Amino acid sequence: MVSIIAAVDRNLGIGFQNKLLFWLPNDLKRFKALTTGNTIIMGRKTFESLPKGALPNRRNVVLSSNPETQCPGAEVFPTLEVALQSCQPEEQVYIIGGASVYKQAMQVADMLCLTEIDAEAPQVDAYFPAVDSAVWYEKSRESHPDDEKHPCPYAFVDYIRK
């Protein structure tokens, strides 16, 4: 099963200068809970944005068209298609970014695990693709208000392919 996991603002913004738009501890906890023990696939810039490199207790897969790319603790593949072919049928795969990888993965994903943030980031240079309601069905939504650790309301929303 291939899932896409992302946090998006009201305009589907996902990042600015290779950084997340919002610091939401519960979103990070959910990300860790879902992806630990599974395979994560990301672009090279997303890998470079990880503060400590490869994420522990996960199979880290990085996409790069440059055959010289070295990502310590991760396997590198030239395309999403080749990376997915390296996965076993029973492997749970999460696509974790960035924008161009999300765009490619929308064609093959079975599920979207989105954190929909009820705010607009002041500066955005990377966006998530539109979620087409003709293709995706909202399976579940768990809404959360803002609080002392979360500067704006957000919801964990899972979509499945129709």
TrEMBL record:
It catalyses: (6S)-5,6,7,8-tetrahydrofolate + NADP(+) = 7,8-dihydrofolate + NADPH + H(+). One of its GO terms (molecular function) is dihydrofolate reductase activity. GO terms for cellular component: cytosol. InterPro entries: DHFR (IPR012259), DHFR-like_dom_sf (IPR024072), DHFR_dom (IPR001796). Pathway: Cofactor biosynthesis; tetrahydrofolate biosynthesis; 5,6,7,8-tetrahydrofolate from 7,8-dihydrofolate: step 1/1. Residues 1-161 form the DHFR domain. Keywords: NADP, One-carbon metabolism, Oxidoreductase. It holds the Pfam family DHFR_1. Its EC number is 1.5.1.3. GO terms for biological process: dihydrofolate metabolic process; folic acid metabolic process; one-carbon metabolic process; tetrahydrofolate biosynthetic process. Belongs to the dihydrofolate reductase family. Key enzyme in folate metabolism. Catalyzes an essential reaction for de novo glycine and purine synthesis, and for DNA precursor synthesis. PANTHER family: DIHYDROFOLATE REDUCTASE. This is Dihydrofolate reductase.
